[in-house]
C-alpha cells in the first residue's frame, strides 16, 4: 500500500506546484499568526485554485476562533487540522458544521500521551501524531521535532492516522518501517529555512514516500 503524503505550510505557487507534481495526497495551509508559514484565507484560496480535486486541502489551526475557521473553510479547504487543545466535542462540532474531515493532532512524548487519542474516536476523522513541543514553544508544531517512533509499535490505533514531526527525505523510510505509518506529514523537513519551502526537498520527500 503506498504511503500517502501531506506537504504542510505551503505559501507559494512553486511549492504548491511541486507538491502536486510529486503526488502529494494533501497540501496543508497554516492559519496561525506566530508561524513563519502563516497564510490568510485570500492567499490560500489562490493557491487552492491551482490544485486538482483529488488533492486534499488541509487548514491547520491552533485553538482558533470560529470566524477564522469559517473564512478559511470558505477558501476551499477539504479538511480541518486541529493542532491545539481542542476537545473531542469541538472537533465533532466542527465536522458537523462544515461537513468536511476533522483531524486532531496528538502531541507525543511518552506512551501515556497516546491515551489521549482514543477520546477522539467518533469525534475526529484522523489523528496526526506529532512530537510534543516544549512548554515555552510559540507554536505547537512545524519545528522539525521528532518523538520516539517506537512508541507507536504495536499501538492499536483508534482512527486512521498520519505520522509527523521531524520527518525528511533521509529518515522517512526508517520512520515508516518502525511505525507502519500509512500516511505522513512534513513541514520543516522540506524547507531551506523556517517557512521557506524548497522544491527539490519536496520532490525528494515525495519520491522517498513512493518507494
Ligand atoms: O507548520 C507550522 O508552522 C505549524 C504551526 C502550528 C501548528 C502546527 C504546525 N505544523 C504542523 O506540525 C507538523 C510537524 O512539523 P515538522 O515537519 O516537524 O516541521 C507539520 O506537519 C504540520 O502539520
From TrEMBL:
Query: What is the uppermost EC class here?
Result: isomerase
Q: Fetch the Pfam families from UniProt.
A: PRAI (PF00697)
Record field: catalytic activity: N-(5-phospho-beta-D-ribosyl)anthranilate = 1-(2-carboxyphenylamino)-1-deoxy-D-ribulose 5-phosphate
Protein's pathway: Amino-acid biosynthesis; L-tryptophan biosynthesis; L-tryptophan from chorismate: step 3/5
Q: Which domain of life is it from?
A: Bacteria
- Keywords on this record? Amino-acid biosynthesis, Aromatic amino acid biosynthesis, Isomerase, Tryptophan biosynthesis
Indicate the transmembrane segments per the record.
none
One GO term in the molecular function aspect is: phosphoribosylanthranilate isomerase activity
- EC number(s): the record gives 5.3.1.24
Metal-binding keyword on record? no
Q: Which residues form the N-(5'phosphoribosyl) anthranilate isomerase (PRAI) domain?
A: 6-207
InterPro entries xrefs: Aldolase_TIM, PRAI_dom, RibuloseP-bd_barrel, TrpF_fam
**Which family, according to the similarity comment?**
Belongs to the TrpF family.
Task: Kindly provide the name given to this protein in its UniProt entry.
Answer: N-(5'-phosphoribosyl)anthranilate isomerase
This chain is encoded by the gene named: trpF
Amino acid at each position: 500500500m503506498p504511503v500517502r503524503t501531506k506537504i504542510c505550510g505551503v505559501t507559494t505557487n512553486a511549492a504548491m506546484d511541486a507538491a502536486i507534481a510529486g503526488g502529494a495526497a494533501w497540501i496543508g495551509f497554516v492559519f496561525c499568526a506566530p508561524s513563519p508559514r502563516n497564510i490568510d484565507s485570500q492567499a490560500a484560496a489562490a493557491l487552492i485554485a491551482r490544485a486538482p480535486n483529488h488533492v486534499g486541502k488541509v487548514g491547520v489551526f491552533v485553538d482558533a476562533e470560529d470566524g477564522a475557521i469559517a473564512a478559511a473553510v470558505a477558501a476551499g479547504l477539504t479538511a480541518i487540522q486541529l493542532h491545539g487543545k481542542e476537545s473531542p466535542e469541538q472537533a465533532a462540532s466542527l465536522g458537523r458544521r462544515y461537513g468536511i474531515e476533522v483531524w486532531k493532532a496528538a502531541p507525543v512524548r511518552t506512551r501515556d500521551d497516546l491515551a489521549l487519542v482514543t477520546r477522539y474516536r467518533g469525534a475526529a476523522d484522523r489523528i496526526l501524531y506529532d512530537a510534543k513541543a516544549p512548554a515555552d514553544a510559540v507554536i505547537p508544531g512545524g519545528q522539525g521535532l521528532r518523538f520516539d517512533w517506537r512508541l507507536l509499535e504495536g499501538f492499536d490505533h483508534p482512527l486512521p492516522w498520519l505520522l509527523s514531526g521531524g520527518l525528511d527525505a533521509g529518515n522517512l523510510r526508517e520512520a515508516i518501517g518502525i511505525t507502519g505509518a500509512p500516511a505522513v506529514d512534513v513541514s520543516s523537513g522540506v524547507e531551506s529555512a523556517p517557512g521557506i519551502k524548497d522544491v527539490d526537498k519536496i520532490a525528494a520527500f515525495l519520491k522517498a514516500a513512493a518507494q
